Amino acid sequence: MRLDVTAIKSGYGKVTILHGVDFSALPGEITCVLGPNGAGKSTLMKTIAGQLPAIEGDITADGASIAGVGALRTCMLGIGYVPQGGNVFAELSVRDNLMASAQAFAGASGRIDEVHRRFPIFLERATQNASTLSGGERQTLAIAMALIAGPRVLLLDEPTAGLAPIFVDRIVDWVRELASGGMGVVWVVEQDPEKILAISKTTYVIKAGRTAEVLDSRSLLQPGRLEQVLLQADEGSAGPTRA
């Protein structure tokens, strides 16, 4: 599925956070979203996922508009979303978290079996409350819950923030495998950017609620380039530049 965001404006109530973001994600590719705190990265993910309404602009999936259809319909159309926090039902067991995600989707039981094959710890801890899992285990469970719906595009909002390196590596490897199977992945990057940029195709830099730059992700691995991009002022920018 190709995902396109065109001139999106969005925010919270009367407060506009996004002021005309343009963005695209292609099937089989990992696309990164970078930017300083408060730039609007999470707002962009919530708007694409249907959790926030778009004030202006459009969101299309394979050319068909999905703006305004709501979070459930967006998910059923093939867009999965893993927010940065609050992404599991803490007081439910691991099994119940997976089952809760499976209820609305045909074929989900088979995907639960796949989760168990990939992460046998979730089978071993099926009756354990999600609140008792480690941070890395909870984040992995959250991604597994999103995948049970069978998405064709997966939105990840800083999925490795605060995790131990072993979980970062596991999630990076898993996401790379998903993309190689044809899934489009959008990854909001904060922690360990070099690991994610190394497996990404394109990076969108969001500043002050606008698309400031569109870059080849690997170019950001050059010494000092990532710091330069993140620190560069964009006041008065007329629109995104592509490099």
Q: How much helix is in the residues?
A: 25-40%
- Coarse shape: globular
Fold-level CATH name: Rossmann fold
**Low-pLDDT ranges:** 233-238
Mean pLDDT: 90
Find the count of extended strands (DSSP E, 2+ residues).
11
Task: Count up the helices.
Answer: 9
Report the β-strand fraction as a percent range: 25-35%
Multimeric organization: single chain
CATH class category:
Alpha Beta
Question: How does this model look, in words?
Answer:
By secondary structure, the protein is of the alpha/beta class. Strand 4 and strand 5 form a beta hairpin. A seven-stranded mixed beta sheet has the order 6-7-8-3-9-10-11, sandwiched between helices. It has a four-stranded antiparallel beta sheet with strand order 2-1-4-5, with helices on one face. It has one domain: 3-Layer(aba) Sandwich (Rossmann fold), CATH 3.40.50. The protein is globular. Helix content is 33%, strand content 27%. The two termini are 24 Å apart. About 2% of the residues have low confidence.
